[in-house]
Amino acid sequence: MSDNERPEIDLSRDPNPGVPNHARPEGAGVDPLIDLSRDPNPGVPNHAKPDDED
Q1: Could you tell me the superkingdom of the organism this chain comes from (predicted)?
Q2: Given this model, what pLDDT does residue 13 score?
C-alpha cells in the first residue's frame, strides 16, 4: 500500500452498524483539547472557504 492510500475498514465487525459511537456520553464534560475561549469570533461560522464571487 502506498502512503496516500487508506486501508479498507471491515464494516462487518461493527457491533452497532449505523450508530455513531464516537460522540461524547450524555452529560460528559467539555473536551479539554478544544479551548473555545480562544475563538476570536464565537458563534460565527468563519471556518469555511469563502465562496467564489465570479
Answers
A1: Bacteria
A2: 84
Contacts of residue 30, defined as CB under 8 A and 6 or more positions apart, other chains included, come to 36
pLDDT digit string (tens) for 6-35? 888 887 888 888 887 777 788 888 777 878
> Which residues, 6+ apart, have CB-to-CB distance to 24 below 8 Å?
31
CB atoms within 10 A of CB 4: 5
What is the phi/psi pair of residue 12, to 5°? -70, -10
Query: What is the grid cell recorded at 4?
Result: 496516500
Q: Is the dihedral of CA 20, 24, 47, 42 positive or negative?
A: positive
pLDDT at 1: 61
For residues 24 and 18, give the distance between their C-alpha atoms in angstroms, rounded to a whole number: 17
